[in-house]
Amino acid sequence: MEKGKGIMGSGRRWAVDFSDNSTAPSSRDIPDPPGFARASVDQDDSTVSRQKKDAESNWKTQKAWEVAQAPFKNLLMMGFMMWMAGNTVHLFSIGITFSALWQPISALQGVGKVFEPYKDNKVDLLGPKLLFIALNLGGLALGVWKLNTLGLLPTHASDWVSSLPPAQEVEYSGGGIPL
Amino acid sequence: MAIRSFFLFILFFSSSLSPVFSLYEDQVGLMDWHQQYIGKVKQAVFSSQRAGRKRVVVSTEENVIASLDLRHGEIFWRHLLGADDVIDGIDIGLGKYVITLSSGGSILRSWNLPDGQMVWESSLQGPKHSKSFLLVPTNLKFDKDNVLVVFSNGRLHAISCIDGEVLWKKDFEAESFEVQQVIQPPGSDLIYVVGFAASYQFEMYQINAKNGELLKHESASFSSGFSGEVSLVSTETVVALDSTGSILLTISFQDGKISSQQTPISNLVEDSLGPAVIIPSSVSGIFAIKTDAVTVFIRVIGEGKLEVVEKTTHEIAVSDALSISEDQQAFALIQHASSEIHLTVKLAHDWDGNLLKESVKMDRQRGLVHKVFINNYIRTDRSYGFRVLIVMEDHSLLLLQQGEIVWSREDGLASIIDVTTSELPVERNGVSVAKVEHNLFEWLKGHMLKLKGTLMLASPEDMAAIQSMRLKSSEKSKMTRDHNGFRKLLIVLTRAGKLFALHTGDGRIVWSHLLRSLHKSEACQSPIGLNLYQWQVPHHHAMDENPSVLVVSRCGPSSDTPGVLSFVDTYTGKELSSLSLDHAVVQVIPLPYTDSTEQRLHLLINADKHAHLYPKTSEALSIFKREFLNIYWYSVEDQNGIIKGHALKCKCTGEVADEFCFDTRDLWSVVFPSESEKIVATVTRKLNEVVHTQAKVVADQDVMYKYISRNLLFVATVAPKGSGEIGSVTPEESWLVAYLIDTVTGRILHRVTHHGSQGPVHAVFSENWVVYHYFNLRAHRYEMSVIEIYDQSRADNIDVWKLVLGKHNLTSPISLFSRPEVITKSQSYFFTHSLKAIAVTSTAKGITSKQLLLGTIGDQVLALDKRFLDPRRTVNPTQAEKEEGIIPLTDSLPIIPQSYVTHALRVEGLRGIITVPAKLESTTLVFAHGVDLFFTQLAPSRTYDSLTEDFSYALLLITIVALVAAIFVTWRLSERKELQEKWR
User: For the ER membrane protein complex subunit 1 C-terminal domain, which residue ranges apply (chain B) (predicted)?
Assistant: First the structure.
């Protein structure tokens, strides 16, 4: 409309506006035709739109659950990869383990973002969110477990004493065979 | 921590993949250097060959015979005889054989002069021990065969020069006959053997040189007896001193008749001088006697008349006679005058005329002239020229010719007593810009050359340039401290009493200092250097204070003679001070305490077991008082088989009050039964060794706590019968017992007996393990054993939470009186070589794995991973143990040819191996000394913390530049393409 105006202003004599303004409230210079009450149309539509909205929220909930379950597949794949990587420390197993740790962490950081599209007053996202978090934590646990099986977690006494300096001795003794 | 263990694992992994630490051919000499010496020259014989290169053959106190180039002093060839094969005499026979008499006159060998190959060897036996003489008469022929005359072991031999066959022999079995001279007058077929019998009878034997027949035997008795040596003044006259050293006896035995004349020394020299000694010399007609202050030259004028020709108070040295023509003999005389030496060459019969008189400037650090050898040559104008070879007090060898020192050899370095190291000065700021630019240009040039080499574009000349550049890298021989701690000074004390500082980069002598305190003096008759200690090592004041070393010496060979301390600045080589002690020094104990100037406290124990504290300052005393009750010392009396522990008691209760002297009391003693055990070796940990951790992580993440104590002594004893040579006893009557003794409490922590084993024992102690090497008589092989000690009382520290929170007492100070509960693990392996020395690598933090350095009988140094000597080795290690790095057990230790540290070189007469940590954790510096010196850097786990020397920085730089350029170009290209896409 504005564009049209602009064009008119720049020299065009006339223009036909094909835009359908039937649903929009009349806020323009063109008055509603006589006998047409805009409010009544709105009331008629409300049932349709509610149904529509319900469907949408249902769809959103469904989608949210789907999204929430997505890490499960990931988990399975990770598990398989880990099994493939074996229990010795080398580049492959380290890479897999660190990606297994990193993925859940980054996913957990972005929980809000993941469920952003499904945000709605009527949609209860708590369940999917909890599931999502739980699955990711499961993934994290898997990663940590893998780290442990690789022996990279300081869970043994040896990890804590391996760099302890020797204890000082109180006494000192020297000597030997006479020069 | 986990990451650390991960990295350590990676580190181990990378090292286990390539356990061989060999070098490439072009890496030889990059980090190592090798120097060849011969030792103090005893005797020198000039080769009279007309053609070929002029050479001199020498025998030395290190039992080396060597042929040296007279022009440059280089070694043509060299042979080191065994330690008990002392050379008695050398000579040149037939102009092409070097004849050596050694082992107390029982082995005669002939060597080919040009290349040093042995021609023959013959063994000479005899009825009794005696002096030995080797004569090579020039004109004594026997069926066209030149004859050698050898007197040894109481028997006179005539030996063929060609094949070493004994032509005839003659025994001198008279009970008390002591041979003094064997004379073969030139031009006659006679041999005179003169000597003393029963110390007052003069005996003369005249022997036919053709067949050994005794022609005449005369004797004459002198009531006053004899002392010292005799000097030969002519072919038929000798001069001896009576037993009081005040009367000269001139004995002539012309035509087999003994006639003699006595001349009191006081008749010749007015003032009485005390007992004199004859200086051995072979100049005819002249001999010299020496008293405390004066040297007198005396001429014999026929019929036993004596005349003093010169009297001098200067230090003097005389050469043997050199016959320059039929009837002329020349000899050289060297006198000292402050910073110069005067060389005079005289004719034997003409004392007043000089053939040659020269003055040569002489470094005072070389001390006095000990020996002179003269040689002549014919100048272009057909006159005689003379060159002399002189041996100095510091054992160096110099050639003088035409008033100049032609060359010099620092042969004192062949007899090193002790070694320590010192840091170099810290680099100061203010390097000039020009120098930097020059360096930058050089740097770039060098790296471009290297790059060419890497890319295989270099021509042979370029390759040679690269190699010489690598070898002469100025970086490694700088006189400042470097980042990696590779550049240090090796301070060595030689037997001559001279200190040398060698640069570790290229082995050059930075300074040398003949210790004043080791000069002969009134109070100190025969000073000998004993040991070197680091006296002051400044860390906090490294910029403005110089480190210093302590040299401990003693005034005589016996242990109760007073000691002398000298303090030497290691940057400049200046003797800071020296102390003549009023007590003996039996032991020196460096204490682990330093005062505020970072001088280390030392405890000197004297013969009466009094302890003297040094430095004698009140500050040191207060530090010492604080630790008084915790200081102990022990003494090993290896003769009696007793080890005693002592504690300090109170101030000395002597006649003079001395705050710094302390009485000691005996605490404990370990007495080995003298009929079954004899101490052969003791070894402790090095005082400066750093241990990284007290825990050892074993398979399955278990922990074993090492028993790390500075106060552990390893003692090896053998059966007294088995203390002789290998094979002298049967396995049943020989055994070896190894002990680990706590030197504070005297507790024996471990004892193990090896039945059927024998010494010699070589051992090394490090961290919590000891490795020792001995001979197994049953297996007829050498064996090496390892003992590791673990602290069982700490083993229950396994609660992770306690460890996480730090609620453990693993690092709190412990007392040795708290009875540690130890367990030991040990294992034995066969080893092929017999050893001369053993050492272990040491690094700055003690993280890097260790290697044993074995000085083999072939005078090489072999590096052997400590992992091969791990008592936890089993025949079939589990997977976890394999991961830990445990090698499957084998019966013998492998010798990997590539792991010889000395690669193709030999350190002749190897005596000791010293390891010094560099600042770079992966690297350790190794110095091996014997007659030769060898230095190198070792990285037992490879250089995991630095780039290798041949890393191409230029290549890296070029790669980076190329990458950046490529990024830029592709960016521009993609921009352009995008634009074109948009226009389309």
Answer: 766-983
ipTM score assigned to the predicted complex: 0.79
Q: Is residue A137 part of a domain?
A: yes
Query: What percent of chain B is predicted at pLDDT more than 70?
Result: 94
- Beta-carbon separation of A172 and B710 below 8 A: yes
Range of the domain at A99: 78-155
Same domain, B915 and B825: no
Q: Provide the whole-model pTM.
A: 0.85
Distance of CA B62 to the CA centre of its chain: 10
pLDDT digits (tens, 9 = 90+) for B860-913: 999 999 999 999 999 998 888 888 889 999 999 999 988 999 988 999 999 999
Q: What is the pLDDT of residues B265-280, one digit of tens each?
A: 777 777 656 777 888 7
Residue span of the structural domain in which B891 resides = 834-948
Residues 6+ apart with CB under 8 A from B66: B38, B57, B58, B60, B75, B76, B77, B78, B79
Residue A174: inside a domain:
no
Give the tens place of pLDDT for each residue, B645-678: 999 988 777 666 678 888 889 999 999 998 889 9
For residue B804, the chain A residues in CB contact (below 8 A) are 160
Show residues of chain A in contact with B814, CB under 8 Å: 167-170
Residue A166 lies in a domain: no
- Let me know if residue B729 belongs to a domain: yes
With beta carbons under 8 A apart, name residues in chain A contacting B531.
Answer: 179
**Considering only alpha carbons, which residue of chain B is nearest residue A164?**
B693
Instruction: Identify whether A44 is part of a domain.
Output: no
Asked if pLDDT for residue B639 goes beyond 80, the answer is yes
Question: Both B730 and B685 in a single domain?
Answer: yes
Q: B700 and B793: one domain?
A: yes
B825 and B713 within one domain = yes
Contacts of B706 in chain A (CB under 8 A): 166
Contacts of B950 (CB under 8 A, 6+ apart): B450
User: Which of B207, B173, B213, B214 shows the shortest CA–CA distance to B191?
Assistant: B207
Q: Is A177 on the interface with B (CB under 8 A)?
A: yes
- Secondary structure (DSSP) of B821-835: -EEEEEEEEEESS-E
